[in-house]
Amino acid sequence: MARQTNINKENAPVVNIQKTLTARITRARAKALGLSGIFPAKNESNQVLHPRTKRGSSENKPADAGSRFQSKRRAVLKDATNMPLNDLNMRVVNEIKIQTSKQTRCVIEKDMAASTVCMGPQVQKGKIKATEDMTKQNIKELKQITAQLKLVKELESKPNIYYNPKTFGSLLPKGEINILNKAEAANDQAILDIDSKHQDPQMCSLYAAELFNNLRAAELKGRPSVNYMKTVQRDITKEMRGICIDWLVEVSEEYKQTPETLYLTATLIDQYLSKRHIEKQRLQLLGITCMLIASKYEETIAPRVEDFCFITDGTYTRREVLDMEHKVLDVLSFQISVPTVIKFLRRFIFVAQSSYKVPIVELEHLAKYLAELTLTEYSFLKFLPSLIAASAVFLAKWTLDQVEHPWNPTLEHYTSYKASELKATVLALQDMQLNNEATLHATRQKYKQNKFNKVATLISQKPVKPLS
């Protein structure tokens, strides 16, 4: 009993404290009661300072934790040789600007230092002398800065032009070719870089030069014979061949085929006739069969065999066409990927258009018209496809403009032909262009349509002279 009494006495203050907590307790009363240890301390802004607990990393991080624990990033290395011409020029310009600004800042700081160094009356003479020396140095530095700023302005105004090393000293390496990426050349020796700005991936700008070099080598192999009418054929003539191809021009228009299909058809016909004799009754069969093969090679959706049988009014059956297809492919050993005139013509037209600020539509249509006229002419087999394409562009430019010389260093560079080498082909083309008594009209009627700007009606008023 006595032990229970002692326990109650010891617990009495706690009970009193709990009762007291139900009422409002000030800090003075809490101090009097000895309860200051059970109240959390407050900071100066009357905010309760809670003890540290385990929370998210974002709550426990200091304000500058991100700046102290930033992850290191690797620098991206760029190859300066693969940078475009504009980026290279702008890089040079920016470096010169930074260097110029630094030099200007140094000049200003020297002036300020000169004004504050000499402050006592006993050093006035030294101040005047130092000022004169510094003025001379500043004038020399400002001249250098002015020369650099002048160069910067010239680079900014013409960022895409390689200049002559004689004019700008060590700015460009010696022997650098003059390439003007402008529509108008600065001099007659300038060569336009036609592949520098082209963004169309189908033009293969990075590989275009190599591709056309390979085409130039390939056109020398597998050429049709230039005199097979005398050595191989005995039943057909060159007039029959011309009539057949002229009819195929109409068939190509009927089925809306690409120009590549028509040119490849004529090439396959000549290659087969150079190796195998054929009767005149089967010449038309050979024509539609070669067009069927070319359509399968060039067209997205080739006409059916029945369509070619229908175009001949049922003269040949489906079995005859398939048998002839087998014979043609066997004779040619399936070598049907050959360079034709149109493959070179597209490239040369693109080169010719680079000399103008705005492309001339008539130039493209007229060059294609002149090149297509040669398909029906047996005599043009002696000319290389690239030579015919270059001559068509030459005559087209002369027909449209008889004041300016149609050939320039850019065309000579990309075609690899001089104007004197085109003389025989250009004169033969002009004779065909001026021939109003031609019996084969399919190509002429085709290019008299509005969609081709009626270029078949255009003729040159003067004979071609600048061919020497």
Brief summary:
With 468 residues, the protein is mostly helical. 54% of the residues lie in helices and 0% in strands. It folds into 4 domains: 1-37, no CATH class; 87-159; 228-331, Cyclin A, domain 1 (Orthogonal Bundle), CATH 1.10.472; 341-457, Cyclin A, domain 1 (Orthogonal Bundle), CATH 1.10.472.10.
The separation of the N and C termini measures: 142 Å
What is the H/E order?
A: HHHHHHHHHHHHHHHHHHHH
Helix percentage: 40-55%
CATH H-tier superfamily of the largest domain = Cyclin-like
CATH architecture annotation name of the largest domain? Orthogonal Bundle
Poorly predicted residue ranges:
36-85, 158-188
Biggest sheet character: none
**Structural class by sheet pairing and helices:** mainly alpha
Shape: elongated
Q: Helical stretch count? A: 20
Assembly category: single chain
Beta-strand residue percentage: under 5%
Q: Given this structure, which CATH class of the largest domain is correct? A: Mainly Alpha
Overall radius of gyration: 44 Å
What's the number of domains? 4
Mean pLDDT metric: 75
- Named CATH topology of the largest domain: Cyclin A, domain 1
| DSSP strand count | 0
GO molecular function: cyclin-dependent protein serine/threonine kinase regulator activity
Family: Belongs to the cyclin family. Cyclin AB subfamily.
InterPro entries: Cyclin, Cyclin-like_dom, Cyclin-like_sf, Cyclin_A/B-like, Cyclin_C-dom, Cyclin_N
Keywords: Cell cycle, Cell division, Cyclin
